[in-house]
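Tokens as discussed.
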């Protein structure tokens, strides 16, 4: 007697290729409990997993650009969805959706927990073994000092809305009426790296200020490790949408809590933090200054330089928000 072949829980690679190539809406049930479906909607450029969860109220954020979670309503009732939003990534992301479905239906894990667990495992698979680079550790420490000070004076929502994070904007904080650049060094001199010709150029008519933190390794019982400062800032921010903004900023810096044991150095201020006005007297390179000197800017593929502020007098009485960005105590 020939046994009846058991249907596969998930699409084999060739079948998935055909589904995606056809470019038409697709909905396929995944056998198990609770009911789940794979769906493809070419008109919106989405592929996802839908799990029937009548009691679900909200979906946790993924903090990923191309994978989102959401609560939807269909003929079957309320559902939890994990959606991949870039068609070019459908093939690569399909195992992620299958893993979530298996954890929900085979292991009995709640959909939100299955999503979080699967994302952690995929992230661990791709994570480099390198420790958090020291330069990045120091930079994040200083930026969090300024963020924490702004949280205490401007409020959680306003401070997190102002924080632009690494690489997302030209300046680190965009406050009402002015911008703020944060620089941190662990050297004996107050020297800082400037990453481009435009990093110290004000945006239109908005004043630009620079907060300089100068750190040194702390002795026993003093200062704080980076993970400890992150914990303090999380405590100040609390839960809710602002917490999501904080975590997104930390991820953009390359932070992961798995790095906690690798950041063993305690940091404290070597000297008091200082605030400078980035004006025509501030030492810097800009496109205008180089162009006026006859430099062919189109020949400069990349410019990164160090500025030494040792001995340069900071402003004496900075505004409240600027003082807050410079004065938060790390310990």
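Sequence:
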């Amino acid at each position: 007697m020939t046994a009846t072949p058991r249907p596969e829980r998930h699409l084999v690679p060739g079948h998935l290729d055909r589904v995606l190539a056809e470019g038409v809406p697709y909905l396929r049930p995944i056998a198990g409990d609770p009911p789940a479906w794979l769906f493809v909607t070419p008109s919106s450029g989405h592929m996802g997993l839908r799990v029937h969860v009548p009691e679900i109220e909200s979906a946790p954020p993924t903090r990923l650009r191309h994978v989102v979670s959401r609560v939807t309503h269909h003929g079957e009732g309320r559902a939890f969805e994990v959606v991949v939003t870039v068609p070019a990534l459908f093939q690569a992301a399909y195992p992620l959706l299958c893993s979530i479905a298996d954890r929900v239906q085979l292991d009995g894990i709640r959909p939100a927990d299955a999503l979080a667990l699967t994302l952690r495992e995929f992230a661990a698979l791709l994570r480099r073994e390198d420790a958090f680079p020291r330069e990045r550790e120091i930079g994040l420490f200083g930026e969090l000092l300024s963020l924490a000070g702004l949280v205490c004076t401007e409020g959680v929502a306003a401070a997190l809305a102002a924080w632009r994070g690494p690489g997302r904007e030209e300046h680190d904080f965009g406050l009402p009426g002015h911008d703020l650049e944060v620089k941190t060094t662990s050297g004996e001199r107050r020297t800082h790296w400037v990453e481009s010709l435009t990093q110290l150029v004000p945006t239109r008519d908005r004043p630009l200020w620079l907060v300089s933190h100068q750190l040194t390794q702390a002795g026993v019982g003093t200062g704080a490790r980076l993970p400890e400062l992150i914990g303090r800032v999380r405590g100040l921010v609390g839960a809710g949408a602002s917490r999501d903004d904080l975590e997104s900023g930390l991820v953009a810096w390359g932070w992961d809590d798995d790095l906690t044991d690798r950041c063993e150095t305690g940091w404290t201020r070597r000297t008091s933090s200082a605030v400078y006005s980035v004006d025509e007297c501030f030492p810097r390179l800009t496109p205008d200054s180089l162009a006026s000197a006859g430099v062919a800017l189109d020949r400069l593929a990349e410019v990164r330089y160090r500025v030494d502020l040792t001995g340069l007098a900071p402003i004496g009485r900075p505004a409240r928000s600027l003082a807050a960005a410079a004065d938060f105590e790390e310990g």
